[in-house]
Design a protein that fits this description.
The protein has about 325 residues and is of the alpha/beta class. It has a domain of about 210 residues: 3-Layer(aba) Sandwich (Rossmann fold). It has 12 helices and 12 strands. The strands form 3 sheets. Strands 7-8-6-5-9-10-12-11 form an 8-stranded mixed beta sheet, sandwiched between helices. Strands 1-2 form a two-stranded antiparallel ribbon. The longest helix is centred in the C-terminal third of the chain and has 14 residues. It is globular and about 55 Å long. Bound molecules: S-adenosylmethionine. S-adenosylmethionine (SAM) binds next to helix 3 and strand 6.
Length: about 325
């Protein structure tokens, strides 16, 4: 569904703890990024977790940004890649259903956080005239390298727009997977949607997400991907019982950080029952209700009992 608000949405920048800004979505009742730091989240959970400093040594890279939003994951990726290899040619697809966010994110306060070539890429993406449901952009930058970026935002429900990438056999070495939380936006965390996204994941290649939820990890596993954890950078005094900052998945890689015994047991609890959307068309309530029915019917350990066993409060 293409979101075209009756009166244009005003996105008000909200500061996060690393000094960068995020937005709050009234529709999903969530901020777009972690309150701990929007910019640092984009680097730690997406650019670094997909191994971009190493991948950037290649002459070219394909990236897929699922839920482009303000474009921070794309921006952190481009910064990381071009710092290692200023000549690297990048092809990027971003999926989102609300272009007003990308447009608001190129205001001078927000975009000043990024280097000149990255600002040019974000601006070109956000300013492009929609053609049908897509916004084609070719960024050409003066300087060390020209024509090193080609980007396109596909605007619409990602469950549909991903089909275009599958048809053209787009293969990304890095996929940033960043919808609102599974509780608020379950449509984009189902086994069926991950199966579509995984068809765009190159071998080798990595998908990274901030979610370390058991249902999300189970869904990635059911699709056939190897999964690893993104360990905490440091213990978080505000969240003393937190155990990971996300999940990484790959078809082929054996070098992912393995899930701890505690995380593996989490997958066996009721929380590990994956979300389902058989026809890729259900609404949030139907998808959550289906998961609850499956949880009620099974005889899995409750997640609260698992938490108690591991001293998670
Ligand atoms: C958590 S925010 C993404 C933040 C973004 N990665 C960034 O760095 O700013 C989630 C995004 O998902 C988009 N979204 C929500 N439902 C969607 C859907 N069904 N299809 C595509 N995008 C969707 C929202 O417009 C929002 O921009």
């Amino acid at each position: 569904m293409l979101v075209t608000p009756a009166c244009p949405m005003t996105w008000i920048p909200q500061p996060t703890q690393d000094g960068s800004f995020t937005f709050f979505s009234p529709a999903f009742n969530e901020t777009f990024h972690s309150r701990q730091g929007a910019r640092s989240e984009a680097f730690a959970k997406f650019a670094l977790a997909t191994d971009l400093p190493r991948l950037a040594q290649r002459p070219s890279l394909n990236l897929l940004d699922v839920c482009y939003g303000l474009g921070y994951n794309t921006a952190a990726a481009l910064e990381t890649i071009w710092q290692v290899n200023p000549q690297c040619q990048v092809v990027l697809y971003g999926l989102d259903n609300d272009l007003t966010v990308a447009a608001a994110a190129i205001s001078p306060t927000l975009i000043a956080n990024w280097s000149a070539p990255v600002q040019a890429a974000l601006t070109a993406l956000a300013n492009a005239e929609p053609v049908g449901l897509s916004v084609p952009v070719t960024g050409e930058f003066q300087g060390q390298s020209q024509n090193k970026f080609q980007g396109q935002l596909l605007i619409g429900d990602a469950r549909q727009t991903i089909q275009q990438l599958i048809r053209q056999n787009f293969q990304a070495q890095a996929i940033f997977f960043d919808p609102f939380s599974p509780r608020r936006c379950p449509q984009l965390w189902t086994v069926e949607f991950f199966a579509q996204v995984a068809r765009c994941l190159a071998r080798p290649g990595r998908l990274a997400t901030y979610s370390r939820s058991a249902a999300v990890r189970s869904a990635l596993g059911l699709v056939g991907l190897q999964i690893g954890t993104i360990p905490l950078a440091a213990p978080d005094p505000n969240h003393p019982h937190e155990w990971a900052q996300g999940t990484v998945a790959s078809w082929t890689e054996t070098s992912l950080t393995p899930l701890s015994p505690m995380e593996l047991e989490h997958l066996q609890t009721r929380a590990g029952i994956a979300l389902r959307d058989p026809d890729l068309s259900d609404g949030a309530a139907a998808i959550l209700a289906r998961q609850q029915r499956e949880q009620a019917l099974g005889d899995r350990e409750s997640t609260s009992s698992w938490r108690r066993r591991w001293g998670l409060g």
